[in-house]
Amino acid sequence: MDNPQQEYASRLESRKKAVDDHLKKERSFGFARLFSFLLGLLLLFLTLAQFDFPAWLILAPFAVFVVLLVLHDRMIRERRGLEQAVLYYEMELARVNHTWMGKGFNGSQFEPDKHPYAVDLDLFGKASLFEYLCRAKTPTGQRKLANWLVAKSEIEVLSRRQEAVHELSPNLDFQESLAQGVTDPTVFRDPEYFEAWMGMAPIPFGGYEKSIAYFLSLLSGITLVVWFGTTWGGLPFLASCILSGTYFSYLGGRVIRVLSSVEKISEGLNSYASLLERVETETFLSEPLVDLKKKLETDGTPASEEIRKLAKWVKKLEDGNRNVILFPFARLMFWSTHLAMAIEGWRERNGEAVLGWIDTLAEFETLSSLAAHAYSNPDNVFPEFEPKEAILEGVSLGHPLMDRKTCVRNSIRLTQETPLVIISGSNMSGKSTYMRTVGTNTVLALIGATVHASQFRVSPFRIAASIQIRDSLQEGISKFYQEILRVREMIDLSHEEGPLLFFIDEIFQGTNSHDRRIAAQSIMKKLVREGAMGLISTHDLALTQIAENLLPPGKNFHFEDRMEGDKMIFDYTMKEGVIEKGNALNLLRSIGLEVEDESAT
Fold this sequence. Notes:
By secondary structure, this protein is α/β, with parallel strands linked by helices. It has helices at about 5-50, 55-95, 130-135, 140-150, 155-170, 170-180, 190-200, 205-230, 235-260, 265-280, 285-295, 305-320, 325-330, 335-375, 430-445, 480-495, 515-530, 545-550, 585-590; strands spanning about 385, 390-395, 410-415, 420-425, 455-460, 460-465, 500-505, 535-540, 555-560, 560-565, 565-570, 575.
């Protein structure tokens, strides 16, 4: 089995060296460019000073300059790709070494309002599951991963994702190539606009309008040659300019609309093309990846070339309108008009297909993220799916976001015969973390990812959780009322098709013990009766009796602590049965707050 830490470190060192080598070559190319340009100027100056040099000798340094310019530009692009590879492997090492928190893209903008488990299981935001998983560079790839995390998928879909992830996991070159494809993630300034632009109503240009534009371009060129090459003077050229200006005033509004519409999409096109090219040139073996790649097939030109063609036209259009020197000639030769017509024709032919290409690319990015997650965690396993009966069974579960060195593993088993686990325990003993461990691994399983366990079997659950409930000052709702609203949502979800998996931390903590016991027992009976299963935690030992009163019965487990001198020790290991004592008094005493137990006197 590969050691991901060693492999990442080796690749990181190799890419850093490659960056240094490129920088040295770039400096050499820079000096060579400068020398060739100055040499050309010198020969030109000497020629003007009556020295007789052949034309080829004067032009040769400028030709060398142009060649070096092209090669230098290519080398800079390669170096920027290598720099992205360096950043990629630095982040992979950070994940392996558990120093990744706050360094990646956290996806906080994707957190849905009032979602039944996104906040409770820390799916989005700093140090979230999304930040830990996401390697996608495109906004559509990032959104695809977010959607997978919060939506339910069928077992057939999950099995195909697992197969794809299994193939991609050892393919570090492909994962790296997707990272290199975007040298500057800020180029995707407005992804929603990009999608909207592809689906915008066409800006029509008739066939005869294109023919007239080509004729006037040719006429302008001919009359310009006539002006400088004959004795006819500039009147033909002036007449041509008047005709061209009149015709542009007729077309100009539409041309300007095209120009303004492409301003927001121009920067990201080459990045999309590079990423698509990486997918197109990769050979896949598994059926899911082969089928996915087929979605990029076109009748002739590859998707990457089509987008790169659009990128070139957009750049030429912008250059013709922004460059002060080129602008008069661009206007005279209908440069902007021809390009605007070409861009609109491209959008009419490919607009709908492009959205499919970008969505396919997003799925490859998301699968690659899950594959990198699998490779970085070789002790993880692919879960088994149980389509017939509701079951959740995990052996040696650990929280995927915790440091492997300190993570304590526990197991879980929920079946139709034992649908409820009640967890009692002292403060800070690990109850909430355990619930998040089970919930987060279940989310991973249900997106097609590997889980942090030695074995894991799960049904296609819908999930609901009440672990991280807060007061809402804006809505004027208390924490307790927020909790009962979430429980109401769980009851409603339990009526829908498919099993529900629920997590309730410190159930009904905001009310007295008498009301809490009655309410909790009633709610658990309703949920279990509808086929739901889940975990609840409590400090109230009276609630542990609920397990015995259910049909089918639940099961009690607990976390505990022990005192060693003045120090409180937690082993974070779940044990069967009900906790026998609390630790609130010991916690107070451990920080110097002496309390007297008057009931003992």
